[in-house]
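Need tokens for this chain, all 164 residues.
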Amino acid sequence: MPGPTAKDPTLRGRRNKTTTRATLSKPDAETTEKPKLPSSIEWYPEVVAWWDDLWTSEPRKEWIDVDTHLLYVAARLYQMMLDPDTKPTAAKALAGEYRQILVQFGLTPMARRTLQWEVLRVEGEKQNAARRASSGATSTTAAKAAPQATARVDPRKRRLAAVQ
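Here are the structure tokens for all 164 residues:
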């Protein structure tokens, strides 16, 4: 005696599919419109570098214009975290808020995984990544053994030196 008839495949499909799944690729440098940071603040170079990286990164294509306002808030929080006048307890609170904004915009590896965003890699980048992975143990030990030629200057110390 035959069993019950099979369900229609469309009814059997999983219902927990995400609508955010996307494959991300680098935006075109020529067509990428990068908003400027407000000129009312003297931005630290680290914040400016972060802002430039932000607008040339892969998740950029997933944002809409209204998201820019919250990214300005993130830039301001980052600026305040780097400010030498910020107390450690306040800097810790700022870091928490900053981290949450990064997650909301898919700017951390775990956030991209949660959103099921996959970064498209160019063939040359895949080969470079494989090469780095295979030589990772030797390059890390060499980097630890050799001191850096240029020391990175803490922006807080630089600002203190300018005041004195």
